[in-house]
Structure formats: C-alpha cells, structure tokens
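Input record (one chain):
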Amino acid sequence: RSMAQEVVGLFCMILLTLTALVANIVVMVIILKTPLFRKFIFVCHLCVVNLLSAIFLMPLGIISSSSCFNRVIYSIAECKAVIFLNICFISASILTISIISVERYYYIVHPLRYEVKMTIRLAVAGVIFIWIKSVLITVLALVEWPHGNGATSASRCTVYWSPGAHKEIFVILFSITCFILPTIIILAVYSSIYRVARTASLQQAPVPAQAVAPARRCDSLASQVTILIARILMLPRLIPDRLLGSNKAILTLVLIVGQFLCCWLPFFAFHLHSSVTVGTVGGGHGEMLVTWIAYSSFAVNPFFYGLLNRQIREELARLRRSCLNRPLGQELCLSISEASVQENFLQFLQRATCTLETHTSCISPSPRNRLDQTTAGFPTPGQVPEESS
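The corresponding structure, as predicted from the sequence alone:
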C-alpha cells in the first residue's frame, strides 16, 4: 500500500478508538450519575464492554493492521492473550445487544410484568451469564494451540491465522452462537415491537367531548371563524402525528438492525468463508477491513443505544450547563413537535400508546395538551393483559 493509504488508514483507526473512548465514557458517567437511569443497566454494561475494547483491543488492532508495526513480534502466550480479548469482547458486546433488544420487548409489550420482574438481581445474573458464555466460547478457540516459546508477527495473531486443529469447527460454532442466533433474536424482537408500534400509531384517538358535543348554532362571523380555527388546529393534527410516529418507528428499527448487520455481517461472513473454503491463502487487507468494520461497532453503539435516548441527551445537556456554570433555570423546554422528532423509539411508543410524560413545567395548557390528556386511559394495542394478583 502507498504511504497515503497507510496514513489515512492509521488516522481512521485512531479516530475510531478515540471516539469509542469518549462516547462510552460520557454515556457511562450519565447513567451512573443519575439514579433514575438504573433501567439502563444493560446499556451501561454495553458501554463498559465497548470501553474495555477501546482500551485493550482496538490499540492491539492498530498494531496488527498497520505496516508501521510490522516488526512487532508476539510470543505464543501473547498471541493467545490477543485472541482471547478479541473473541471475548466481541461475544460480550453482541450478547449484550441481544439482551437489550429482549429487554426493550418486555418493556414495551409487557410493561407491568417488566416493572415487577426486572430487578437488580436479574440484571446482575444477565451480566454474569454474558461473561461466562463469552469466556467459554473464547476457551474453545484456544484448544489445541501449539505450546512452547514460538513467536509470530502481530499481523498474524488473529483468528484467521490460528494454528489450532479445530479452527474450522470453532469458527462455525462462534458464528452460530454469536451472530446467527443473536441476529434471529434481534430481528424477531424488533419485528414484534414494530407491529405493536404500528398498531398503536394507527389507532384512532378519541375526540374530546367538547369537540363533538352539539352546540347552539351561531351564524356570526366571529363564531364561524372560531369553529374553523379549532377544527384546523386540533383534529387534523392527530393524523400527521400518527404518520410521523409510524415512519419514526420504521426508521429507528432500520437504523438499529441495519447498524448491527453492517458492522458484524462482513466480519463473520469473511471468517466463515475462510474456514470452509479449502486452499484459502492469506487474510491480507480483507481481514483488516472487516475487522475494523466490526470494531466500529464499539464506537457507534453508545450513540445508537445511549445518546439516541432523549432522556440521556437532556441529562448530558444539564451536565454541560452545570460545567459552564449556567443556571439550570435556563433550560430549553422542547415543544411537542420538537420532542416528537427527537424522542427515541421507546418514548415514541409511550406517546403512541397514550402514556405521555408530564410537560406541565415546560408547556402551558393548550387545546392540543388537553386533547392528549384525554387519551391517557386507553390500553396499548398488542399488549398482553397482565394478571392481577
């Protein structure tokens, strides 16, 4: 490769590493600093895995990928450690994303059951399960490795160059447990969430009593103008909100699922193809490219699962203002239309299912607010009725 390609590649790898460090630290600090955000415990764990990857794994990836470090030689023990960190952090990240998707499903479709059963003990058990499964999968990769004081270059210290006798079996098992099954779970869960969201967004909201109650006809010009304005401002605005919510749900699902597939599909497809194809020679630049596409997931995950959430963004804005010594009374309160565009997927569902948050401190009463308040007691379409005890 030319010197320009080397410089651009090294710059992109360093930029991804720094982005992963900063973004994951910011989201972790916000979640740990705010007691009300304990429901984001799996998002916080995902940030921990991404941060560990940015500290240990991605710098090792820079050494393995850049020709500036061609003279770096690893011993067998060091090479095992590199592969252990690689497989362990990748497995933990993907498994955490799968659990986050299942958690969101129960949070939306079974909200009461989620509030009762989603305890700290269950969350800790889920985190322990993730790490146990990740370590067990990693141990399988190191079976039948040669022992001794041999050495290898850093660029060859990858799963592709693994000299283990059962590398093909491991790659197939690794791809099934850490990509194929999680992908099936994510697609099934978010498809179910989308169906609930679409049903909720298309549900006709009831018209308030004062809007449909017969009134004495008044032929005065002022009365007719008042009625016309009320019809324009109140009733027709329900349809754009439902259309916006439906399109927003589709866009959010495409972003989350698409980001996961774009990051991890090339990586696992490359290793599956190389393991089942006889006579494949050299990983070369292809392995480096798919590896760093996969590593980019560690940098973008805090945006998709953390900063995409409006509550976390608002808390980040408060922290920034407090650092700049600005009074908290100068907070900018979002209007209904702005919030509907900026809210995350869960908050869209809460709004679509008539469980609006309280905005009385920011928004003055208006016909639109009174209309929204009348819809608060209606059930969510697609929700399974909770058993009363």
